[in-house]
Amino acid sequence: MNCGELATKPPVTIAPDETVENAAEKMASQRVGLLVVVDKNNPKKPIGVISERDIIRAIAKKVPLSTTVDKVGTMHNFIYVYADDPITVAARKMRDHNVRHVVVVNRNGELVGVISIRDLIGEKNVLNILAREWAQTME
């Protein structure tokens, strides 16, 4: 199974000049833990992410909720996988970078979706694939 097959839901996006408050409202209403920040002129071009963790850190630092997401989120060096990568690549990147989400793009860099840790553990066949790879690395 590849990452594009697992990332079936449309990604929830936000513009870089929207506020942290808007991001939190969107996350709550869409029931997601990560928004993909996209280029205002090209909604298929991801330029960053803002996560629940980013918002918590901002609140802890007393950052005003009117601050724009491009000042609080992870811009340009966010973690991503290609749609044709095996799902094991997504799992490995989540583990290695201590993140709960990876952005999925095609080979042209266009946004395809997002894979969350919940997506990985919510599918029995995905868990079987991950277990087989883990077992092979333990040999």
Write the layout of secondary structure elements.
Elements: H1 3-6, E1 13-14, H2 20-30, E2 34-39, E3 42-51, H3 52-60, H4 69-72, E4 74-75, E5 80-82, H5 87-97, E6 101-105, E7 111-116, H6 117-121, H7 124-138
Parallel strand pairs: 1-2, 5-6
Antiparallel strand pairs: 2-3, 3-4, 6-7
Can you walk me through this structure?
Keywords: CBS domain. Pfam families: CBS. It comes from Pyrobaculum islandicum (strain DSM 4184 / JCM 9189 / GEO3). This is Signal-transduction protein with CBS domains. Residues 7-65, 74-132 form the CBS domain. The chain is of the alpha/beta class and 139 residues long. It has one domain: CBS-domain (Roll). It is 42% helix and 24% strand. It is built from seven helices and seven strands, in the order αβαββααββαββαα. It has helices at 3-6, 20-30, 52-60, 69-72, 87-97, 117-121, 124-138; strands spanning 13-14, 34-39, 42-51, 74-75, 80-82, 101-105, 111-116. The protein has a four-stranded mixed sheet with strand order 1-2-3-4. The protein has a three-stranded mixed sheet with strand order 5-6-7. A hairpin with a 5-residue loop joins strand 6 and strand 7. It is globular, with a radius of gyration of 15 Å.
- Beta content: 15-25%
Anisotropy-based shape: globular
Number of helices: 7
Category from helices, strands and their pairing: alpha/beta
CATH homologous superfamily (4th level) name: CBS-domain
Please count the beta strands (DSSP E, at least 2 residues each): 7
CATH architecture classification name: Roll
Note the gap between the termini.
Answer: 23 Å
Give the strand order of the largest sheet, numbering strands 1, 2, ... along the chain. Answer: 1-2-3-4
The CATH class, by name, is Alpha Beta
Pfam family, one: CBS
Domain CBS: 7-65, 74-132
Keywords: CBS domain
InterPro entries: CBS_dom, CBS_dom_sf, Diverse_CBS-Domain
